């Protein structure tokens, strides 16, 4: 994927909560995915070696479940802001769904990979398989014959796209955090050092010190997004 991150003024960092109103489960809340699955069995470095079939089944289920989901108002408003402001805004998400893409948002950085994509374990070649089951879509890498895996960053694996996040938060002037518990990517330091900051979640998280944020909105993302969009427009001077 070619990503364009060009010293953005505003960084929008989202997590599972922004897609909750599209009917996609979050991870850590009640009835979230981790209530029904064990992380170490299907989302840990090495799980493809010791638990391959169940791991692939798990991501097949999530991928197929995406097909009938639709982006919500929050994804759409962010896509619109990105259309208006271009490189002044960077959109980065921890989500592996394709809601931003389907909302027409361009240049989204998916920090933890994408459900729709498979990656060759040998040569890293990627293939978009839409909403298919992995073994139905493709058995081996078309380029080198290697075995394919979900293009997801498992816990304990390196996350190459973090480079874009690190770069963007060093130069931006405003950070907007939407729908993340802050347990995988910490956001406190961002709020501490970036001049303007907005936090939107449903409820406080024990991994986030909300006093560090200039504005805190504890409400659904679809309800908070208009106020967030107005603040961004005001900040960028339109
Ligand atoms: P999390 O489950 O840890 O936290 C979800 C957060 O969203 C909570 O703070 C909650 O208050 C908030 N929230 C819930 N509903 C909301 C709503 N309607 N509006 C606004 N906020 C809402 O999620 P996380 O921090 O993103 O966890 C990180 C990991 O979860 C990431 O690695 C990501 O890859 C993965 N994940 C992705 C998806 C997806 O692609 N949609 C789904 C589940 C998990």
What do you see in this structure?
This protein is of the alpha/beta class and 238 residues long. The protein has eleven helices and nine strands. It has helices at residues 17-20, 33-36, 39-42, 47-50, 52-66, 73-85, 99-102, 134-137, 162-171, 188-193, 221-236, and strands at residues 10-14, 89-93, 109-110, 113-120, 126-128, 148-152, 174-178, 196-201, 215-218. The strands form two sheets. A six-stranded parallel β-sheet has the order 3-2-1-7-8-9, with helices on both faces. Helix 6 packs parallel to helix 11. The mean pLDDT is 93. Bound molecules: nicotinamide-adenine-dinucleotide. Residues 15-17, 19-21, 24-29, 32-33, 94-97, 112, 179-181, 183-184, 200-203, 205, 220-221 line the site of nicotinamide-adenine-dinucleotide. Nicotinamide-adenine-dinucleotide binds at residues 15-17, 19-21, 24-29, 32-33, 94-97, 112, 179-181, 183-184, 200-203, 205, 220-221.
Set out the fold topology.
Elements: E1 10-14, H1 17-20, H2 33-36, H3 39-42, H4 47-50, H5 52-66, H6 73-85, E2 89-93, H7 99-102, E3 109-110, E4 113-120, E5 126-128, H8 134-137, E6 148-152, H9 162-171, E7 174-178, H10 188-193, E8 196-201, E9 215-218, H11 221-236
Parallel strand pairs: 1-2, 1-7, 2-3, 7-8, 8-9
Antiparallel strand pairs: 4-5, 4-6
Helix pairs in contact: 6-11
Nicotinamide-adenine-dinucleotide binds at residues 15-17, 19-21, 24-29, 32-33, 94-97, 112, 179-181, 183-184, 200-203, 205, 220-221.
């Amino acid at each position: 994927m070619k990503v364009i991150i060009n010293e953005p003024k505003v960084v929008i960092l989202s997590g599972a909560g922004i897609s909750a109103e599209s009917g996609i489960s979050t991870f850590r809340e009640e009835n979230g995915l981790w209530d029904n699955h064990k992380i170490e069995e299907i989302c840990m470095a090495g799980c493809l070696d010791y638990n391959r079939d169940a791991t692939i089944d798990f991501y097949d289920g999530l991928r197929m479940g995406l097909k009938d989901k639709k982006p919500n108002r929050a994804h759409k408003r962010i896509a619109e802001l990105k259309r208006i402001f271009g490189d002044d805004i960077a959109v980065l998400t921890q989500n592996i769904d394709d809601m931003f893409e389907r909302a027409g948002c361009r240049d989204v950085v998916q920090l933890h990979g994408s459900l729709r994509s498979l990656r060759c374990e040998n040569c890293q070649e990627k293939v978009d398989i839409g909403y298919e089951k992995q073994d139905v879509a493709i058995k081996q890498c078309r380029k080198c014959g290697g075995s394919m895996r979900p293009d997801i960053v498992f816990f304990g694996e390196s996350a190459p796209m973090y480079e874009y996040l690190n770069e963007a938060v060093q130069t931006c002037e405003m950070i907007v955090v939407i729908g993340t518990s802050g347990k995988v990517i910490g956001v406190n330091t961002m709020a501490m050092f970036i001049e303007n900051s907005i936090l939107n979640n449903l409820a406080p998280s024990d991994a986030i010190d909300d006093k560090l944020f200039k504005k805190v909105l504890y409400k659904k993302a679809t309800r908070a997004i208009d106020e967030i969009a107005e603040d961004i427009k005001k900040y960028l001077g339109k």
